[in-house]
Amino acid sequence: MITIICTTNRRPSNSRLVSEFYQTLLTTAGEESTIMDMADLPSDFTSTALYEKAGSNQAFNSLMEQIQNCEKFVFVVPEYNGSFPGVLKAFIDGLKYPASFKDKKCALVGISSGTQGGALALSHLTDIFNYLGMNVLALKVRMPRIEASLIEGKITDKFSLELLDMQVDQFLKF
Amino acid sequence: MITIICTTNRRPSNSRLVSEFYQTLLTTAGEESTIMDMADLPSDFTSTALYEKAGSNQAFNSLMEQIQNCEKFVFVVPEYNGSFPGVLKAFIDGLKYPASFKDKKCALVGISSGTQGGALALSHLTDIFNYLGMNVLALKVRMPRIEASLIEGKITDKFSLELLDMQVDQFLKF
Amino acid sequence: MITIICTTNRRPSNSRLVSEFYQTLLTTAGEESTIMDMADLPSDFTSTALYEKAGSNQAFNSLMEQIQNCEKFVFVVPEYNGSFPGVLKAFIDGLKYPASFKDKKCALVGISSGTQGGALALSHLTDIFNYLGMNVLALKVRMPRIEASLIEGKITDKFSLELLDMQVDQFLKF
Amino acid sequence: MITIICTTNRRPSNSRLVSEFYQTLLTTAGEESTIMDMADLPSDFTSTALYEKAGSNQAFNSLMEQIQNCEKFVFVVPEYNGSFPGVLKAFIDGLKYPASFKDKKCALVGISSGTQGGALALSHLTDIFNYLGMNVLALKVRMPRIEASLIEGKITDKFSLELLDMQVDQFLKF
After folding, report:
1. B152: pLDDT strictly greater than 90
2. Most buried of B71, B110, C34, D113, CB within 10 angstroms?
3. What's the start-to-end Cα distance of chain C, in Å?
4. DSSP secondary structure string, B4-52?
């Protein structure tokens, strides 16, 4: 069972579409998965669920428990301002250590309108997840110019599709 | 005129104390400054002030205008989960490009309970600010084991004090 | 069989001593290992073994073959100028892709005289190894102020010893 | 007076061509410059010029003195294995601190055959130069797919040309 995390709270978002597309890849590979969407974070979570207030926001706790009960994650990461969305890190800042990510595994997918495909975003996230004790699959898929490739909810770029298939294959064995 | 940004919304915080201490250093050096505190972000800003909702939250807009009207910033950055606080990046994700940081200048101060002093946090932030067109002063002050050094609101560690003085001196000429 | 790589060509070096100490930890854990030392690189390898000259330096080729025939690596990394030794990257620049590191596994150990313990060095190396398709164990051991901890070839700092034992344990299962 | 550093020792190299092209941009802007080429490093410098042997290789010393006598640098950086060339870092590891880079200024240009344009390479270099006390211009030019853009020694891609012009303009005022 894999949790795919749509790491932006923007609605609608290409990240959500890519998350859903990734789920079809996992289904095809015979793997169950669920999508967790940062758009479902409580609107005031940065004030009610972090630091000394950890545990007091029930809607946040529900997401936190989903994280704690899962062992493998796929993060779909749009590039915002040269890195990943701040809300993802704020979410992480409200989670418990070590129950959330330690000794777990993840794969990273970066998307961008520009040419980077989130290279720095995925590097920053790798630093953070490694710090928290989560192993990150070496093969990270970067998809620059996502608007040209994502058509009616499907990735159409052949090179990206090959990388995604390789990533799914490797991640199931990781 | 320099804006010192306390980059966590935790209250109370060592970052706030260090921000106030930094202000005394600037005052001593004859430089005016003001403190902006991420604790003053609206509680629901991640839902009401980002992306397509940019501009619709007046309390957020007020902070945004302070940023746009300032040319030089000092960021006081606590290390959270191997990087900087997520709320800071969420705040940045709601600001306007290029009016906020492009062609401006900043200095970075990292603090941590552990031994890193925010080395990775400051590296990640440098990537982001450079991406946004803001020049970052090379001299970044890292203060590991901050609890031992910060006594009654004053940095007492001699090595840190020397670095802070050098940073202030260089930043005023930057 | 694990190859421990002493990543500096400096002689003598604390990195060599730590590499030998790491070997005793692996032996105690019942794992065979060998040490490869960047001090054994041919003196002119940057001119005779890289790019279009790949393959023409026999001494370099011998090291390259050792890399290609091994599946798991431990890199002992001293912090030089805020990152890892340049000779290590020059060595990597002469290796073959994908036979050297793709689909392989490694663990990283950082040492420094200063307080960072190679935090940025290990982050940069992680970026590179992930790019090359090698999975990096999340648990990276950083040992700042190595001169105080490394006595007669043994790490004496209790916290570092615990981390090293955890890393060995996790890496054997990785 | 600006020193443009071609950061690979490969011959011939696109980096060399881009360095020469950059020089024409500086000349047009009325600025004197010289090119330093890592291809001119002594063939055995990693064995004869680093660490305790610093100072004993006259050809290396000559390059070192050029660095020490210059205040502003442009680094032309090809992406090798997800970062910058190892020989550049080995060169840096042989230079003197603080006489080489402290309180100096640089601009970075990344080139790659692939789509990254050296995003991570430039981030790693920024970490290193900031550590050494050198201020790095925020505007870093990345040129992915360089083979398509670099024709008869000239950058022909319009977007890259605009960025290069902006960088030159900003760097002369930096």
Report:
1. yes
2. B110
3. 13
4. EEE----SS-HHHHHHHHHHHHHHHTT--EEEEEGGGS-TTHHHHSSGG
Q: How far apart are CA B2 and CA A79, in angstroms?
A: 29
Q: Which two tokens stand for residue B64?
A: 């945004």
- Please provide residue C31's backbone torsions phi and psi, each rounded to the nearest 5 degrees: -115, 135
Query: CB B173: neighbour CB atoms within 10 A?
Result: 6
- Any bridge partners for residue C80, and if so which? C83
The residues with which C110 forms a beta bridge, in sequence order, are C77, C142
For chain B, strand residue ranges (E) read 2-6, 33-37, 72-78, 105-111, 135-136, 141-143, 150-151, 154-155
Could you tell me which residues come within 8 angstroms of residue A31 by beta carbon, excluding any fewer than 6 positions away? A1, A2, A168, A172
* Confidence bin at C84 (pLDDT 50/70/90): very high
Which range of residues forms the domain containing residue A85? 2-173
The segments of chain A whose pLDDT lies below 50 read: none
Distance CA(C21)–CA(C27), nearest Å, equals 10
Q: Do residues A86 and B89 make contact, with C-beta atoms less than 8 angstroms apart?
A: yes
CATH assignment at residue D75 = 3.40.50.360
pLDDT recorded at residue B71: 98
pLDDT in tens, chain D (174 residues): 999 999 999 999 999 999 999 999 999 999 999 999 999 999 999 999 999 999 999 999 999 999 999 999 999 999 999 999 999 999 999 999 999 999 999 999 999 999 889 999 999 999 999 999 999 999 999 999 999 999 999 999 999 999 999 999 999 999
pLDDT tens across B71-116, in order? Answer: 999 999 999 999 999 999 999 999 999 999 999 999 999 999 998 8
Contact D104/D135 with Cβ under 8 angstroms? Answer: yes
**How many domains does chain D divide into?**
1
C80 Ramachandran zone, left/alpha/beta (phi>0; psi -120 to 50): beta
Nearest residue in C to A122, CA atom: C127
**What's at C1, amino acid-wise?**
M
Would the CB atoms of B138 and D138 count as touching at under 8 Å? no
Q: Among B124, B145, B126, B144, which Cα is nearest to B134's?
A: B126
Distance from the D51 Cα atom to the nearest Cα atom in chain A, whole angstroms? 30
Q: Do D116 and A119 touch (CB under 8 A)?
A: yes
Residue D123 forms contact with A (CB below 8 Å) = yes
Distance from CA of B138 to the nearest CA of D (A): 4
- A158 token code pair: 């052949």
Report CA C53 to chain centroid distance, whole Å.
Answer: 24
Name chain D's partners: 3 or more CB pairs within 8 A. Answer: A, B, C
* pLDDT value at residue B163: 98
Q: What's the pTM value of the predicted model, to 2 decimals? A: 0.98
pLDDT of C115 reads 86
Tokens representing B147 are 């609890």
- Scanning D60-119 for CB atoms below 8 A from A yields 115-117, 119
Q: Has residue C116 got a pLDDT over 90?
A: no
Angle at A69 between CA A68 and CA A74, to 5 degrees: 80
A123 → closest Cβ in D115, D117, D120: D120
Which residue of chain D has the CA closest to B107?
A: D135
The percentage of chain B sitting over the pLDDT mark of 70, rounded to a whole number, equals 100
Crossing angle of helices B158-173 and B14-28, in 10° steps, is 60
Average pLDDT, chain C: 97
Residue of A41, A81, A112 to mutate for B, most B C-beta atoms under 10 A: A81
With contact defined as 3+ CB pairs under 8 Å, the chains touching C are A, B, D
ipTM of the complex: 0.97
Among partner residues B90, B120, B131, which is closest to A86 by beta-carbon distance?
A: B90
Query: Which of A153-169 are b and which e, b meaning 16 or more Cβ less than 10 Å from the residue's Cβ?
Result: eebebeebbebbeebbe
